[in-house]
Amino acid sequence: MNPVGSEIFAGHFRSRRVMVTGGGSGIGFGIAQAFAEAGASVLLVDRNPLVSDSAAQLREAGYDAEHAVADVTDEAQVKAAFARVVDLWGGLDVLVNNAGIITISNLEDLSLEEFNKVLAVNTTAVFLCCREAAGLLRASGKGVILNASSGQGRQGFIYTPHYAASKFGVIGLSQSLAKELAPSGVRVNSYCPGIVKTEMWEYNDREWGRRLGDYKPGELIQEWIDGIPLKRPAEATDVANLLLFLASDAGSYITGQAINIDGGMFMN
């Protein structure tokens, strides 16, 4: 992992407590590792029981990391995850709502069940976690919420109306909460990744490629990467570095924003 962000903020998050949903793998694990390297105590939350191995990996590297197995669409499990962070460290300073899913479907084939499932993980779970976190973050004195949106929170892509709706929703939710929580010093921002090198993008390459033309594996993603001004996909570290800044004292005057991290795919 590229350590640039965590080197810049080395020790900055010492004594701060961070929860990362979807923290067991991919972008979420990269975010959790970056905060741990910068001194934070980190709770990795994921529905996959293998999140325990991810937390153990950070502990073996000398960091203060624990885990909670939870489905963030389940209200009771969300409450239990927040109870765990209080039991561990007495409170919370930074919440990163990173858990997310995508499916790709023609409109006529998109079931209500699939539509609702994507909204539940990508949007409703953000609401549930923000609601549980609010009191803890007010008490923190340096409370920060960072919510995962997407390039599709800016512009919906073909064959993903449910995903686009969920990510537009995250931006609106974050703006509303930023206004409500600002008087108590809690900042709320969302982040909008573009193409990131994860297993999810292998699925996207295959499923979009099948619908958009006769693409061989990797060809469609490469075509999209070629259209990025910086000519490369993001790494998890790129996303993590942005979040370190937004959660730091250096970002203390930034709230209510949706910030692209996509190499210039979308410019706002």
TrEMBL record:
Pfam families recorded: adh_short_C2
PROSITE patterns, A to Z: ADH_SHORT
Ketoreductase domain boundaries: 16-199
One record GO biological process: monocarboxylic acid metabolic process
Superkingdom of the organism of origin: Bacteria
Listed GO MF terms: oxidoreductase activity
Oxidoreductase in keyword set: yes
Record's keyword terms, sorted: Oxidoreductase
Transmembrane segments: none
Entries under SMART domains matching the protein: PKS_KR (SM00822)
Stated family: Belongs to the short-chain dehydrogenases/reductases (SDR) family.
The protein, known as: SDR family oxidoreductase
Organism, scientific name: Arthrobacter crusticola
